[in-house]
Write a structure and sequence with these properties.
It is a single chain. It is globular and about 60 Å long. Strands 2-1-3-4 form a 4-stranded mixed β-sheet. Strand 3 and strand 4 form a beta hairpin. With about 140 residues, the chain is of the alpha+beta class. It contains 6 helices and 4 strands. Helices cover about 50% and strands about 15% of the residues.
């Protein structure tokens, strides 16, 4: 009986240790802040992400991939604000929790309040706000 318990515990541990880790590795590997970009759309997150946080990231990432060519003026970055390597960036943009930031070279806009209040009910409103800020930083 004890052996069966330990085997089940071991299997569950392996399954749970894999949950969410692929997304984190992918974000670290693929999604970086680009200081050369005219505009950086930055999704800051912590260790645990709720449905609202995930919806914000998905919408912002989709907005960039559908509207801009990789390597052009607009970049999408995913940064873990709890990671010591990202602490300077989090401080620069005054981030202490999940946030959606649109950063130009000299200024930035924090769209977190709009994103959290509207992403599940009216994602098009968030996308419109994001688009307006990107266009402002691009000079359109």
């Amino acid at each position: 009986m004890k052996r069966t318990y330990y085997v089940i515990l071991l299997v569950v541990s392996f399954i749970l240790s894999g949950c969410g880790s692929t997304d984190s590795r992918q974000a670290t590997r693929n999604q970086h802040f680009d200081p050369k970009a005219t505009v950086n759309i930055i999704y800051f997150h912590g260790k645990h992400r709720c449905a609202t946080c995930t919806a914000i990231r998905e919408m912002a990432q989709k907005y960039v991939t559908e509207n801009f060519i990789a390597g052009e003026a607009v970049n999408f970055a995913i940064l873990d604000y709890t990671d010591p390597l990202n602490r300077e960036m989090a401080d620069k943009y005054r981030v202490a929790y999940t946030a959606l930031i649109v950063a130009g070279r000299d200024d930035f806009s924090n769209l977190t309040e709009l994103a959290f209040s509207q992403i599940l009910r009216n994602p098009d409103r968030v996308k419109a706000g994001l688009n307006a800020e990107v266009n402002r930083f691009l000079g359109h």
